[in-house]
Amino acid sequence: MGKKNKKPGKGKEKTEKKTAKAEEKRARRESKKVSEEDDIDAILRSIQKEEAKKKEVHVEENAPSPSPRSNCTLTINPQKETELILYGGEFYNGKKTFVYGDLYRYDVEKSEWKLISSPNSPPPRSAHQAVAWKSNIYIFGGEFTSPNQERFHHYKDFWTLDLKTNQWEQLLFKGCPTARSGHRMVLYKHKIILFGGFYDTLREVRYYNDLHIFDLDTLKWQEIKPTPGCMWPSARSGFQLFIFQDEVFLYGGYAKEVSTDKMAQRKELFIQICGLLILELGREQGSLLS
Length: 290
Description:
Blueprint: H1 10-32, H2 40-51, E1 58-63, E2 73-77, E3 80-92, E4 97-107, E5 112-117, E6 129-133, E7 136-140, E8 143-145, E9 152-154, E10 158-162, E11 167-170, E12 184-188, E13 191-200, E14 205-215, E15 220-224, E16 240-244, E17 247-251, E18 254-260, E19 266-272, E20 276-280, H3 286-289
Antiparallel strand pairs: 1-5, 2-3, 3-4, 4-5, 6-7, 7-10, 8-9, 10-11, 12-13, 13-14, 14-15, 16-17, 17-20, 18-19
């Protein structure tokens, strides 16, 4: 028996559909390819190569004020309260994002900026945290964003800046927190307290509510876990953390959650968090933090 006659145009319609589907797949593959200017690994390698050329500390006196930026850190010099230390940050001009790794010192009395260039400096970053102790600034974490904000790299590195010499040193100790940005750090006596933050690579999103302590005398990290039944803050980023006497005050922040509606479509919800939480350092955790 011969084949039944096909309806006119049916084969052509099928071919067109297949071609369109193939084109759609190809376009998706192409869109996922990383352009040269958005290849974070390549950008960071290039920056590292330039950093390796620096052989000595250079201080530019009476430098122009820093460019516009957000998510930088500004820290009081513990050895000189009329001096502020500014590091890093980012700027979005409506088309591209620029991430900075520059270091400035500002004399409040003279209203003068100094721009510091040092060998072995940390890679550029924003949304990191910094605290000052004795004659050093300590920096942990942060993120680097590609110019089109399509790629993100979160740091888990720990650095110290010697304010006497303007020299950086990376601190390599076991037990440090995982890579993150948007966390908060405060200084309590001789310990750095770190809480929360987030990790977002677009493919994977995590918000944290872990508490870590770095002892500046013993140079050791320790994670403090909640005891059963105690109150504990939910995971969050972008909150405020403050020390007063033997208490840490935490307020606000935000988190992003993924949920599914009735149509099984993925939704991202930004949860704004409010409420004041207090961690008492001198009581239950006194033996760990005193």
